[in-house]
Amino acid sequence: MAKKSKNGKQGGTPATVALTQAGVPFTTHAYEHDPATASYGEEAAQALGISPDQVFKTLLADVDGALTVAVVPVSGSLDLKALAAAVGGKRATMADPALAERTTGYVRGGISPLGQRKKLRTVLDASAEALTTICVSAGRRGLEVELSPKDLAALTDASFAPIGRA
Known about the structure:
Layout: H1 14-22, E1 27-30, H2 40-48, E2 56-63, E3 66-73, E4 77-78, H3 80-86, E5 92-94, H4 97-104, E6 121-125, E7 134-140, E8 143-147, H5 149-156, E9 159-161, E10 164-165
Parallel strand pairs: 3-6, 6-9
Antiparallel strand pairs: 1-8, 2-3, 2-5, 4-10, 7-8
C-alpha cells in the first residue's frame, strides 16, 4: 500500500502509479532538491539519512546497440564490462543523456527503473539481494521510493548481477 511522503502529498509519478497498480508495498520519501548538487543519489542519501549503500541510482547504458537499465548503489559506480557480461553482450557504454530521457520519460537525476515509457532490459546490482529494502528514484528529483529489491526485480523483470564497483 502506498504511503504518503513526508510532505503529505502522494507521489503521482509513473513509477508510483506502477507500484500502486501492481499492489506492491512501498514508501515514498520526499526531500528538498538542490539544483546545484553534483550527485543526485548522494544528495538523496544524505537528505534522507539513509546509507548510500541502500540508495540506488538508475543508469542507462548502450550494450551492443540495445539500451539497458543498470541499478547500482550510489556509494559506487557502474562496471560497464560487468553489465555487458551480465546481459550476454560484448561492449557497454553509457547512453546519451538525451536519449535516456526520451526513452524513459524521466529527466536525468529523476530516472526511475519503474514506470518507464519503454520496457528495457534491467540489471540490479547483486548487493541489493542482501537488503530488506532499497531506495530508487520515484521519477523526479527530490522523491525516492523505498521497496523490496525482490519486488523491484519482479516489476522490471530485472536480473541480479555484480555490476557495481565500490
